[in-house]
Amino acid sequence: MKSIAVVILNWNGKNLLEQFLPSVTKYSPEATIHIADNASTDDSVGFIRAAYPEVKIIQNKGNFGYAKGYNEALQEVEEDIYALVNSDIEVTQNWLQPILSLFEKDNETAIIQPKILDYKNKNNFEYAGAAGGFIDKYGFAFCRGRIFDTIEEDKGQYNDTTQIFWASGACFFIRKEVYRKLNGFDEDFFAHQEEIDLCWRAYNNNLKAMYCSESVVYHVGGATLNTGNPKKTFLNYRNSLWMMLKNLPTSKLFPVLFLRLSQDGISGIRHALKGEFAHLWAILKSHFYFYLKFFRFINKRGSKQYHNYFRVKSIVYLYFIRKGKIFDEKFNNTL
Q1: Which has more pLDDT, 225 or 318?
Q2: Looking at the whole model, is its pTM more than 0.85?
Q3: Phi-psi group of 190: left, alpha or beta (phi > 0 → left; psi -120 to 50 → alpha; rest → beta)
Q4: How far is C-alpha 203 from the geometric centre of its chain's CA atoms?
Q5: Strands 56-59, 31-37: parallel, antiparallel or unpaired by DSSP?
Q6: How far does Cα 68 stand from its chain's mean position?
Q7: In this predicted model, which residue has the larger pLDDT, 111 or 329?
Q8: Burial class for 23, CB neighbours closer than 10 Å (0-12, 13-18, 19+)
Q9: Are the beta carbons of 10 and 36 closer than 8 angstroms?
Q10: Which residues contact 220 (CB under 8 A, 6 or more apart)?
């Protein structure tokens, strides 16, 4: 069996560690547990040293966010499989065994996500990842179990093991050699959508992301930035555009980006009509940074990109016009 490291990124999260680290230590006997600390100014590190001396601590020199925070810390982690776990995740008994078995069975499986349910309402899927993620032609992300703000109850409808396009960074398993081959997360992203970008790069390298329902975790969500925060709007829009610039097939690059930018404009108008001017400004600022770093991200493009990256042409159309509120088989699989 391959060795596995559970790595929890922390920044001033002592309260979350007190609440959620007990489940990780209890139900992860197969794993070496690491806390990657982003230069916390609370007593997180002191608490871990006193209460969990068996947990390894990696101290980053600054608050590097999700992407660089993990990139820095994982240079010191040598286990075969990385389990990157948010500090607000409660894990369950036997959560690691199905994941490890799936990695053992298929060498092309590079990334795996468990079933992610809502810690506050444990019968429902959680916003960040649910039962595995996909994108549409224009880079909008959605999940089985969560499309935009519609979240499904878990009725066993996604009790399967299946290929997905992206796995949630809230609980993200990846082979060490793949992580290093792909140079980890894109540090320009800071936080949000960097896991989708990494999965897209893996896909362009003929590697698979999988969803495994036999592994279940519960996620609080929004512990760092909630969905209504304009900063989150800015990061999501900006990083999505950068991700597309890096990974879209060359023949589709400019037509798809033009239509995506137009859709962002409509979204900005929608926020303005609702009086949400902070979100309108966040979208405008995201476009400014997209153009500012345009050539930087063009130069990050890999040697190959595939055309069949998207699950549906427009999830915006399906959701808002066709009223397709839940994931079903009409979302034709192009993978």
Answers
A1: 318
A2: yes
A3: left
A4: 15
A5: parallel
A6: 14
A7: 111
A8: middle
A9: yes
A10: 16, 88, 89, 119, 120
